[in-house]
Structure formats: structure tokens, C-alpha cells
């Protein structure tokens, strides 16, 4: 640390930084980007491995037999759904009760800020149905969730059928140590959010819901199932949740391990794993997979029903059955066995999933990049800002010698006052606040007085705020300068 | 070493032989002594005369056990026509053993079996008299009671949670895990020390982790746990209550429990208690209750009652393969062949109240005996099988009661009182405990006593306590709150709340999660920490007049909670325990912290120290190379430098 106290060396370093600022910044930028792109290269990444001891070494045997029956239930569900024109609540309650579950329903409603795209409605009403399989000789302290959304149209009927089939099969087993909650939620994310808020008795979104009658203690893990065809070619896992949160990596590992064991093709971001990592196309495939994950996380929205669980510290993922034009097909019995295996392993958990990573990127399902590897790339990009700031600061402190007279020199030094720095700062903050509050505030007035719809009103207000904001700092700067000149003279 | 061992063996042998001689000679002397005492007390003489006879019978049975049960029983009855006076308990010793099994078919298709074994012994441990002769009463428990001056002792081990909504009220409520509550006699001076010692002893007797009961999970409830037997005072200084919600109950707890029975698991109803079936169930609970009871109406003589209960619920789908048909064999994989020979009564009750004309289920073999009892505020009808009668076993000499349902409907029940509890909120800083109590009575309100014992690491914000029923504030008429003390004692909250008719009463209280010291975490900290069940004790309005006469002959299951008035009955409801996650450090953190602190100290402190201690001076321009060399030479010469 002689560097700080030795003025000579400090001067040398500073002059180096100011002289070579631009090249160093460019170098950092390229190094950062290269590092990040290098992460997708397979030899540079780590293989995934199961960290959780309770799930790793234990063997489970999958015996789910009744895939055909589950499909039949799914068709029955579809028929009832069509008849009712929505969620067949009564039928679901009766079916779940017949399978020996404790069944409860929850109704919810949510006023939308904008009308629905298709149906021009402002309020969404729905009902969630869930059945709890009570684990024998367990005191209702822990639970697992298997959910399937009741989607409009012909989607997801097989998922509900399989959920009911699994419920029937799970009910006759003795080995459950955690309660299992089978949830069929209406209106996808809205229903899921209503159920979760009610379960934890919080209200973060201003939704109306009826309180839950039955609970199963603290939820340890959740799986959301989406399945719209009788046979599938591959299984896709979706991890990205609300605000880019991710479940513990062990959940992805578990899914991958069972796909390997049972022989189902598995994908992440809809992309299969490739073996030709040394070829250009193989590498670009990995880069695409990883970048898709980055983009999805950056968007901040949940990419499946599971995404809302993560806020409550519940590890969750969505599994999607995909039916494409491949030859290799997997039937529902196999899918059921896969889910059974996953649930049995989760049932073996002694603690919440916590052993593995919570921050990671996945170039493929078998490889991952942990936070320790991708943070240096981010650090290299961030250090550019620091270097630029340092440069500016140094220029402020010792301005380049002016050839004019000394009076002008002194004047220049005193000119950058607090006011000139503070003004843009305040203005930019005010603009931010205006952008946050005004569009929703003026939406109603705008709709009343102008022939625009709600959505347009919001966009227009935002644009107005931007335009006003663009004009402001420029003008103030000029105004301040004139003030200063008047003062001087 | 070997030589030494040989020597020790020889020495032991010598000691043994000599002690045998001493025993034999002393026996001779005691016999002589007995002869003297016969004249004094003819009763004792009769006792001692009977002892050898009884012992012979026991030995005979034990020998018989080598051959299969049925044959043994048959052979036994032919070969040893033992007089009845031996089979029935001797009146002189004044102890009596009764056993019974209640089977209640549940609406959901599940089946509930409740075993009761009661030993009543007219004795008095309280007056400091040494009791050393035990017959039916287990000696291990008797010694514990006399040594620790226990007035009442209630201990239960439960695996699973009683589903009130599906199964109704149990005969013997108990919380998941282990529960222990003890009333000490008022002669005990240091109750806490005695309690500590008692829990350790019981831990050994029942092979359970009761030794984990310490001051951090023990409370002294002021109102919720009153003595169930006769008691002089109810000063709660002599009461200790503790639960261990995490306790796992398994065969190692069942075996010592069975050993306390007079017949063990060799004869009587206890032959059904096979662990492979008992633990293949939805609910399993076993308990031991010891209390002093009155013998007669005037309560002239006091006797000690030991009640051992075992409750089990078998599941329709896992144990019953989905078929609504239950038999003793299907439940326990055994049938009954005889009563316990030491039992004064041995009966099986089957609840047929919902089934007066056999429209719900049919029962075989049919029994002509019917019994009515008022239990849990309702008059119930039971079919009774008396195991002491040979007729019960029929020609096949074995009893296998079979219940077959005719209809297959199962709805949720609406029990008059039930409760649930959960933790609300998310994140690891704060939370809220919600307790919901349902009064499903259409028009009667009744008071309930709520007891909450919360560990210290959940810091309750007691000012946030709210009690609401039907959207309105419901002010408790009695609140007893003892704040916790970190690492010393838990929170204790007791409230008397009036539940309005047909309502839900919600009690909420916020808490903060404490950060523990790093050695205080359990080996599995991410599993979470348990908060024991809250206890709701209530006097629920009864539909029929309750029986307040305690001495009348009644089935055992209806006499556990004493009944003081006719219009209401006592119910205890336990909520589910809670599993709460506390903020947990990453346990590889100490290493990280050491690395980080070392770096920070080295970089930060080092540079600061450097700046502070360095003396700054204006540096002369660097002298040229020639000058430096000249200076070195001058220094060697001893001349001042240039």
C-alpha cells in the first residue's frame, strides 16, 4: 500500500489510467464479453451433480401403472370442462374425493387494470380446487405440491388427468412422509397467485380470495405440470421465475437424473442437449440455450406457474410435455413414472433443498455455470464504469493547464458547484417517479376526455413524460449558465 | 491378562457359591419368621400361601408358549383346571386389572381401534410408606411414583395427527410427538430438580428422548391442565407440562409400553399389538396415565389408577386396499383366542350407533350383548364381546370380528369444536401465527381455554395479539402470559375465549425469528424448528345428560375425563405443530468469514497503519549514479557524504 502514500507512483498510475483509459475500457469490455461467451464452451463448465444427500444415494422404484386410465380421466375432464365452459369444480371435487383426498375449493377475483384482450372484461373470477393427500403418521408439518393449470380450450387436459391418476396411485402408498397437495388452478398465474397468497395469508397484489380451509404445513417443493397430448416426444423443464429467481439447482438435477433413468428425452429452453461441443454449431447451440436463459431471467416475468412459488422460498419448476414430429414417443405411463420418481425423492428430503446453487446458468441440462464463474465477466463490464468515473474525477481535480491568464483558470475551477451537479440528479429522479405514478394516475382522466383506450392512454402518458423530461435538463443547464454569468459580471 | 481373567472368574464363582449359602440359610430363617407372623395376621398368610400357586400357573403358561397358541390354550385348559379363585384377582391385595378394546367404524371408511388397560390398586404412596410388593401394577412405574412423589402422571407418544374433521373426537386426545405432564405432591420442595430427574428416568423406561425436556420447553399452565384424579390443591407450582413435537414414535417405544401390562403381549387383547401392523396405519398413539382415584362414592379409600391406552386408525386405502371391510385379522394380523387370565374384565366394544338396523354395515359374528354409554356428549350404542366367556370364541376357538360396509359414502364431519393453526407470511424475518377455532354448534356458545407454548427463538410480539370472531373483536376474559427468556424458558400464553355459536374465531400474533448462536442449530437446520401444538380445552355443550357418578360401572373409555356437570362434557383438542424456518447461516461461512476478515484487516488496517505511522518528508531529487557511488566510498572512509 505504498502506492497511496507515494505521490510519485500514484501520479504515474493516474497518468497511466487517464492516458490509456479508452484502450483499457475497450479491453475490459472485450474480455468480459469473451469470458461470458466462453462459459458456454463445454470444457469450461462444470457437470451437474446431485448435492442433496437425501436424494442422491437413495433408490426408488417407479411403479405407476395406470397411464391409460389417467388419459381417460383427462378426456372426462375435457368433456366436463366443455360442458361447464370453464373449470368443472363440482366434478373435480367429486373425483378427488373418490380418490380419498381431502378436497377444498378456493374462489378468487381480481380486477384487471386493462380489459382482457379477448373478452373485454375487467374482472377475473375463478375457483381453485385442491385435494390434500394426508401422509400417514405425519403431523401436517411439511407438504409437496403438484399443480396443473386448467387452461382454456383443449389445452392441458392430459395434465389434469395425469394429476388425478397420480393422486389415485399415491393415495394407496404407505411411504409418504409429507402431505401432497394436488392443485388444479384456474386462470394460470392469477389462480396460482391467489392460492399462494391465501396459503401464506399475505396480500401483495390486492386480489380478493376466500381463505383456505385445509393446509399441509410448510411447502417444501412444488412441480407444475403442463401436458397437452397423449404421447410426448420430450420433456421440457422451465426454471425461470418471478424477477429472475431460480429454484435450487438440485431440482433441475433431479429432473435430469430421472429423465436419464427412465429414458425420456429432456430439454431446457426447448433445446435438446448435443454431444458435438467441439463443433461450431454445437457451441452456438449451447450459447443460444444459455442466452435464452439470461434473457428470460432479465424479463422478470415468471415463465410458468412455478415462478410464483419461488418468492415464498419454495423450490419449484414447471415441466412441459412436448409433442413434436420425432419418431421416439413416450406414453403417459412413463411420464407418470417419471413424476412418481421425482416425488418419491422429494418425499425423502430431510431438509429443504439448500445444498446446491441458487444462482446459475445452464448451457445444457447436464452442465451449469455457477455464480462464481459468470460474475467475473460481469465484473469486467462493471469496472469500465469505474474507470470512466476515475478519469472524470481526475480531470476535475487537475484540469488541463490553460494557456490563458490565471484569472480565467481560477474561475473555471470554481464553476462546477453543487447546484449544477444536483439539478440533473433531482430532475432524473423526478422523471422516474413521474413515469412510475403518472400513467396509471392519468389513465382514467385520459379515457374520459380523449377518445383513447386504457392501454393507449398509459403509453401516451409515458411518451409525454419522456418528451417533457428530454427538454428539461438542457434548459436548466442553459438557465444556470446565464445566471452564473450575470452573477459574475 | 488371561491369567488375571481366570483368577477373576474363580473369584466370582467363589463369591456366588458363598452368597447362595447365605441366601438359603436366610430363607430358612424367614420361613420361621413367617410362621410367627401367621398368628398375627391371617390375611398375609393367605397371600403368601397363594403366591407359590400363582407362580406355578405362570410358569406353566410360559412353558406352554413354546407350542402354538391355540393348542396351548386348549391343552392348558384340560390339564390344569385351576380354581377360579386364582384366576380372579385376590381381594386381599386390592388390585384389579381390566382390559377393553373399542372399535369405531369411521365415516370415511377408516377404522379406529382404541385399547384400554386399567390397573387399579388400593395403595397409598403418599404417606411415605415403602411399598415393595407389586402384583399387577408395574414395579418400574410404582418406584418412580414413590421416589419422585408424583401425584399424577400423563405421558403420551403419538405418531401422526388426529383428523378431527374426518374422524370426529378421539377417546384420548394427544398431540403429535411426545407429551408429558405431571402433578407433583405438595411435599416436593424443589420441583424443577425433581422434574428434571423424572424426565430422565422416564426417558429410560419408555426408550424415548424425554431427556430433551428442559427448562426451554417446560411450562406451568395456570388453568389448562387440572388434575384428572382426586387432588387436594391445584397450585400450578406443582405442575409441569412439556411437549416434544419432533419425537418419532416407533417399536422401541411400544415394547417397553407393552411390558408394563400384567399379561405382557402374551395373552388377552395385547396379542393384537403387533408393531408391523400398528405402524402401518394413519395414526398411532400410546399413552400412560397414572392418577389417584376414589374407590367409592364417599371417597373413603383412595387407590392408584394406571391407565394404558393405545389408539390406532387404519386407513381405508393403504391398509384396507380400498375395500370397506375390516376384521381383527386384517387390522392386526392376529385373532383373539383368550382373555388375559389376570383380567377381571376383558371386552370388545363396537360402536354401532350409526347402524341400528344394520343398514350401514354388518357385523359378524353377531353378539347378543349390547351396551349403552354416554361418551363425548352423545349416547352411543355398542355391541359387546365378552372375552371371559367361552361362548364368545365359538366353535373355532378364536374371535375375528368382521365389519363389512354396505354403502360407500364418506363425508367430512362437522365436529362441534375443532381447530387448526398455521404460520403466515414469507421471508425469514417475521411471521404470524394464526390459530383458527371453529364452533360448529348451531346456537350455543361455549368458552375454551387456549394454551400456547412457543419456544423462545420465535419472539412473540404480544401487543399484536388479536382475537376476532365473526369479524368483530372478541376480548378474552382471562389472559395469562409469561414472556420468554432467551435460552431459558418459552413463551406461555393462556387465554379463556368465548366462542360464539356457529363461528370461526381467529387468533393471530406476530413474531420475529431469532438468529441463533451457531452451536444452537440442530444438525438439520434447514428442516426448520418445531413449535408444539396449542392445546384447546373446552366444556362443550352435551346433547344428552352426562353421567357424573364416577363410581358406577361403566366402560373404561367413557370415564377418562371426570365429569362435573351433566350439561357439558370436557374435550381437549390439539392443533397441528408448526414447522418454522429460522434464518440459517451457510455453515461453510466460518471459513469464508475468516478469509474475508483476514483480507480486510490486512488490506484496510495495514494501509491505514502505514499512513498513520509513516513520517512524510520532502524527498530530495534522486542523486546520480556517480554521486551515489562516491557517497558509498565516502561512507566507508568515514567522511560525511556529499
UniProtKB/TrEMBL annotation, chain A:
Key words, A-Z: Membrane, Transmembrane, Transmembrane helix
Keyword Membrane among record annotations: yes
Membrane spanning residue stretches: 20-41, 371-390, 418-438
This protein's record includes keyword Phosphoprotein: no
InterPro entries xref list: Gaa1
The protein's name: Glycosylphosphatidylinositol anchor attachment 1 protein
Organism in which the protein naturally occurs: Ataeniobius toweri
From TrEMBL, chain B:
Top-level taxon: Eukaryota
Alphabetical keyword list: Signal
Pfam families membership: Gpi16 (PF04113)
Signal sequence region: 1-26
Regions that span the bilayer: none
InterPro entries listed in its UniProt record: PIG-T
Protein name as it appears in the record: GPI transamidase component PIG-T
Protein's organism: Ataeniobius toweri
Amino acid at each position: 500500500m505504498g502506492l497511496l502514500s507515494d505521490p510519485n507512483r500514484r501520479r504515474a498510475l493516474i497518468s497511466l489510467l487517464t492516458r490509456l483509459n479508452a484502450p483499457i475500457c475497450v479491453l475490459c469490455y472485450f474480455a468480459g464479453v469473451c469470458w461470458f461467451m466462453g462459459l458456454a464452451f463445454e470444457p469450461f463448465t462444470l457437470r451437474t451433480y446431485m448435492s442433496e444427500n437425501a436424494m442422491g444415494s437413495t433408490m426408488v422404484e417407479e411403479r405407476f401403472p395406470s397411464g391409460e386410465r389417467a388419459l381417460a380421466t383427462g378426456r372426462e375432464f375435457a368433456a366436463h370442462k366443455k360442458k361447464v365452459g370453464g373449470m368443472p369444480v363440482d366434478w373435480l371435487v367429486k373425483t378427488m374425493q373418490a380418490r380419498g383426498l381431502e378436497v377444498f375449493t378456493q374462489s378468487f377475483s381480481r380486477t384487471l387494470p386493462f380489459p382482457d384482450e379477448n373478452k373485454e372484461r375487467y374482472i377475473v373470477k375463478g375457483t381453485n380446487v385442491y385435494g390434500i393427500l394426508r401422509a400417514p403418521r405425519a403431523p401436517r408439518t411439511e407438504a409437496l405440491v403438484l399443480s396443473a393449470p386448467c387452461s382454456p380450450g383443449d389445452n392441458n387436459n392430459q395434465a389434469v388427468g395425469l394429476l388425478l391418476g397420480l393422486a389415485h396411485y399415491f393415495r394407496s402408498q404407505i411411504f409418504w412422509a409429507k402431505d401432497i397437495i394436488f392443485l388444479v388452478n384456474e386462470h394460470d398465474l392469477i389462480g396460482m397467485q391467489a392460492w399462494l397468497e391465501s396459503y401464506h395469508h399475505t396480500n401483495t397484489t390486492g386480489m380478493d380470495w376466500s381463505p383456505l380451509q385445509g393446509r399441509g404445513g410448510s411447502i417444501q417443493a412444488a412441480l407444475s405440470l403442463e401436458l397437452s397430448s397423449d404421447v410426448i416426444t420430450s420433456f421440457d423443464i422451465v426454471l425461470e421465475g418471478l424477477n429472475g429467481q431460480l429454484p435450487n439447482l438440485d431440482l433441475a438435477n433431479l429432473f435430469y437424473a430421472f429423465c436419464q433413468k427412465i429414458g425420456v428425452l429432456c430439454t431446457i429452453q426447448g433445446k435438446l442437449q448435443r454431444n458435438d461441443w467441439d463443433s461450431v454449431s454445437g457451441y452456438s447451440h449451447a450459447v443460444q440455450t444459455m442466452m435464452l436463459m439470461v434473457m428470460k431471467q432479465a424479463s422478470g416475468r415468471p415463465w410458468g406457474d412455478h415462478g410464483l412459488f419461488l418468492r415464498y422460498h419454495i423450490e419449484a419448476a414447471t415441466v412441459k410435455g412436448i409433442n413434436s414430429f420425432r419418431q421416439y414417443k413416450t406414453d403417459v405411463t412413463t411420464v407418470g413414472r417419471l413424476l412418481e420418481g421425482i416425488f418419491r425423492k422429494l418425499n425423502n428430503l430431510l431438509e429443504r433443498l439448500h445444498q446446491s446453487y441458487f444462482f446459475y446458468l445452464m448451457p445444457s441440462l447436464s452442465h451449469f455455470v455457477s455464480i462464481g464463474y459468470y460474475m467475473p465477466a460481469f465484473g469486467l463490464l462493471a469496472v469500465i464504469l469505474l474507470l470512466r468515473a476515475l478519469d472524470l474525477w481526475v480531470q476535475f481535480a487537475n484540469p488541463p493547464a490553460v494557456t490563458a491568464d490565471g484569472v480565467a483558470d481560477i474561475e473555471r475551477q470554481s464553476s462546477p458547484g453543487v447546484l449544477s451537479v444536483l439539478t440533473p440528479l433531482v430532475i432524473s429522479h423526478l422523471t422516474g417517479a413521474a413515469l412510475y405514478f403518472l400513467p396509471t394516475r392519468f389513465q382514467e382522466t385520459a379515457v374520459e376526455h380523449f377518445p383513447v383506450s386504457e392501454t393507449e392512454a398509459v403509453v401516451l402518458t409515458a411518451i409525454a413524460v419522456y418528451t417533457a423530461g428530454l427538454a428539461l435538463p438542457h434548459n436548466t443547464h442553459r438557465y444556470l449558465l446565464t445566471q452564473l454569468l450575470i452573477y459574475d459580471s | 491378562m488371561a491369567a488375571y481373567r481366570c483368577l477373576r472368574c474363580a473369584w466370582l464363582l467363589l463369591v456366588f457359591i458363598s452368597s447362595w449359602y447365605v441366601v438359603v440359610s436366610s430363607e430358612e430363617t424367614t420361613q420361621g419368621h413367617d410362621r410367627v407372623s401367621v398368628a398375627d395376621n391371617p390375611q398375609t398368610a393367605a397371600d403368601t400361601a397363594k403366591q407359590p400357586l400363582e407362580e406355578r400357573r405362570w410358569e406353566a403358561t410360559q412353558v406352554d408358549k413354546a407350542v402354538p397358541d391355540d393348542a396351548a390354550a386348549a391343552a392348558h385348559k384340560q390339564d390344569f383346571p385351576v380354581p377360579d379363585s386364582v384366576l380372579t384377582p385376590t381381594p386381599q391385595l386390592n388390585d384389579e386389572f381390566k382390559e377393553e378394546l373399542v372399535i369405531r367404524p369411521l365415516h370415511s371408511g377408516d377404522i379406529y381401534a382404541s385399547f384400554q388397560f386399567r390397573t387399579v390398586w388400593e395403595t397409598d404412596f403418599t404417606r411415605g410408606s415403602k411399598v415393595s410388593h407389586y402384583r399387577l401394577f408395574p414395579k418400574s412405574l410404582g418406584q418412580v411414583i414413590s421416589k419422585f412423589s408424583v401425584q399424577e402422571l400423563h405421558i403420551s407418544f403419538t405418531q401422526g395427527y388426529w383428523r378431527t374433521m374426518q374422524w370426529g373426537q378421539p377417546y384420548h386426545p394427544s398431540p403429535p410427538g411426545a407429551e408429558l405432564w405431571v402433578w407433583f405432591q405438595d411435599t416436593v420442595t424443589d420441583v424443577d430438580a425433581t422434574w428434571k430427574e423424572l424426565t430422565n428416568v422416564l426417558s429410560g423406561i419408555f426408550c424415548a428422548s424425554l431427556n430433551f425436556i428442559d427448562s426451554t420447553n417446560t411450562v406451568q399452565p395456570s388453568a389448562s391442565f387440572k388434575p384428572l384424579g382426586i387432588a387436594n390443591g391445584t397450585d400450578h407450582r406443582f405442575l409441569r407440562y412439556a411437549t416434544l413435537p419432533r419425537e418419532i414414535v416407533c417399536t422401541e417405544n411400544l415394547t417397553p409400553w407393552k411390558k408394563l401390562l400384567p399379561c405382557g403381549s402374551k395373552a388377552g387383547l395385547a396379542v393384537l399389538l403387533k408393531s408391523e401392523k400398528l405402524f402401518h396405519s394413519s395414526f398411532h398413539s400410546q399413552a400412560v396415565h397414572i392418577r389417584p382415584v376414589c374407590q367409592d362414592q364417599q371417597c373413603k379409600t383412595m387407590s392408584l389408577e394406571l391407565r394404558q391406552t393405545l389408539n390406532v386408525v387404519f386407513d381405508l386405502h393403504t391398509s384396507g386396499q380400498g375395500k370397506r371391510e375390516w376384521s381383527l385379522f386384517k387390522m392386526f394380523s392376529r385373532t383373539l383366542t383368550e382373555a388375559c387370565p389376570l383380567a377381571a374384565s376383558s371386552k370388545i366394544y363396537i360402536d354401532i350407533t350409526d347402524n341400528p338396523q344394520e343398514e350401514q354395515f354388518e357385523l359378524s359374528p353377531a353378539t347378543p350383548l349390547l351396551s349403552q354409554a354416554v361418551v363425548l356428549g352423545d349416547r352411543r350404542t355398542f355391541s359387546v364381546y365378552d372375552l371371559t366367556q367361552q361362548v364368545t370364541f365359538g366353535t373355532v376357538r378364536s374371535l375375528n370380528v368382521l365389519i363389512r360396509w354396505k354403502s360407500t359414502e364418506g363425508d367430512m364431519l362437522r365436529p362441534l369444536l375443532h381447530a387448526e393453526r398455521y404460520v403466515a407470511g414469507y421471508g425469514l424475518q417475521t411471521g404470524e401465527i394464526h390459530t383458527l377455532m371453529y364452533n360448529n354448534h348451531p346456537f350455543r356458545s361455549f368458552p375454551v381455554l387456549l394454551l400456547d407454548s412457543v419456544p423462545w427463538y420465535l419472539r412473540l410480539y404480544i401487543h399484536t395479539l388479536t382475537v376476532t370472531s365473526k369479524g368483530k373483536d372478541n376480548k378474552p376474559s382471562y389472559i395469562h402470559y409469561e414472556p420468554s427468556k432467551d435460552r431459558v424458558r418459552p413463551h406461555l400464553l393462556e387465554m379463556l375465549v368465548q366462542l360464539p355459536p356457529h363461528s370461526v374465531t381467529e387468533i393471530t400474533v406476530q413474531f420475529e425469528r431469532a438468529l441463533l448462536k451457531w452451536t444452537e442449530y440442530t444438525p438439520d437446520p434447514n428442516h426448520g424448528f418445531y413449535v408444539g401444538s396449542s392445546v384447546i380445552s373446552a366444556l362443550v355443550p352435551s346433547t344428552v345428560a352426562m353421567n357424573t357418578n364416577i363410581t358406577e360401572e361403566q366402560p373404561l373409555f367413557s370415564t377418562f375425563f371426570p365429569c362435573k356437570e351433566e350439561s357439558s362434557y370436557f374435550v381437549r383438542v390439539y392443533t397441528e405443530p408448526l414447522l418454522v424456518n429460522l434464518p440459517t447461516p451457510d455453515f461453510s461461512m466460518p471459513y469464508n468469514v475468516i478469509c474475508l476478515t483476514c483480507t480486510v484487516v490486512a488490506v484496510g488496517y495495514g494501509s491505514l497503519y502505514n499512513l498513520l505511522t509513516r513520517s512524510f518528508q520532502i524527498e530530495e531529487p534522486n542523486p546520480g549514479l556517480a554521486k551515489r557511488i562516491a557517497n558509498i566510498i565516502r561512507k566507508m572512509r568515514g567522511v560525511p557524504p556529499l
